[in-house]
Amino acid sequence: MKAPHFKIDDSGIFTGLDYGAANDGEDPSQSDGGLKWLNGDDEADNAKAAEYLINDILETNSHGMLYGASMSFKTFIAINLAFSVCTGKNFFKHQVFKTGKVLYVCGEGKAGVARRIKAQKIVNGSFNGKFFILENVISIDNPADMLRIEQSIKSIKPALVIFDTFSSLSSDTDENSNSDVSSLLKLVKETCNRNGVTSSMVIHHSGKNADAGMRGASAFKNDIDYLFTAYRVNNETMITTFGCEKQKEGEEFAPFCVKAVKVNLGLMRQDGTDTTSLVLMDTDETAPAKSDKGKPLDTNDLEILEALKTAIKEKGYLPPDEVIKYCADNQLPNPKNIININIFRDYGYPLLNVAQDSKRTVLPNRIKKLMSHGKCLFDNGYIWVYE
User: Fold this and answer.
1) pLDDT at residue 22 above 50?
2) Which end of the chain has fewer beta carbons closer than 10 Å to its terminal beta carbon, N or C?
3) Is residue 361 part of a domain?
4) Which H helix or E strand runs over 104?
5) Rounded distance between C-alpha atoms, residue 29 and residue 39, angstroms
C-alpha cells in the first residue's frame, strides 16, 4: 500500500491524509495492481481518424451484422462486399481503402453460394485468389470451433470474416436471450480481434414483420460496432435497399439501392435449361413504394393462408418443371407441394365476404398481400406456401 501524504491547506493547516497517487512525479501507469493507465492528454495528442476498409461503409477491426428478410439479397450484398475487399474495386461507388483476404463461413447451401460467386466472377472478374470458403461444419457458439477459426485467422491474416447466417451457424444459443446473444457476439469479436486488423460480419434475419427490424434479442444491436440492413419491398422487384442503422465511429451512411440482374452461368441443367444466378449492380432506379407490406395481416388474410395450407395438404402435388425453374432462377428453395389457383378458388372463395363477381379479383389481392409478407409464392398459375 502506498504511504499516505499529508494534505496541507493554503494556510499551512494539516487537513488529513491522502492515500492517492497525486504527488508530483508519481506515474499512475506504474501503480500497484498490475493495471496500466494511459495518460489522457497523450492519448488525445496521438488520436487518429477512423480507418476504413470501404469508405464510409466498413471500418478496419470492426465487428457487426447485416440483416434482412428472406430473399432480400443480403448474401449477394455480402459477396459484393467481399469482392471489393479482395480486389479493391469500388463497392457500389464507395472507394476501397484497404484490400485483403476474406474468409466466408457458410452454414448451409454451399452449392448455391458457389453459383452466386460464379455469377459475380463472370460479371466483375476474379476475386484475385483472396476469397476462401470454409468447407468444415462449425458452430460459432462453440469455443473449440472458434479457436480453430482463430488459428486460421492468425495464419491467413484476413481483412474480413463473414458468418452466414447466425441461425445456421449457432447450435445452443437462444437468439431471444440477451445473455446468450451477448456471449456469442463477444466470442466472435474476440476470435476475429486478436490481430487488431480483422473485421467480422454476421448475417442474420429480420423478424416476421421486416419493418419491425432484426429478429431476436436487443443485444444483437447493442453489442456490435455496426448494423447494416437489406430491405426489398416485395418479391416482384429486383431492387433492394442497403442501409445502416448503426456505425461505431462515423455517421450512418445514406441508404442506396442496388439491382439484382440475372446471369447465365453457362451450366446446363438436367432438363436442358440454363442455370442462372444473380449479381447485384449499381442502379439509378429507386425502390418501389411499399404496398401491402406495411399493412399487417388481418383475420381474413390468416384464414386464406390456413385454407391454402389445407388445400395443398389435401390436393397438392409435386411442383412441375416451370416452378422448379422459377425457384432456381430466383435462388429459392423448391416447394414440397404446390396447387393450381383454379383448385384453390374452391377453398378461398367461401372465406371472402364480398359479392360473388368480386371474388375473382379479391382473392388474388389477398394472395398478393400474403406474398408481400413472405407467406406464399405465386407463379404461372401455381401457388405454394413459403415458410
Assistant:
1) no
2) N
3) yes
4) strand 102-106
5) 8
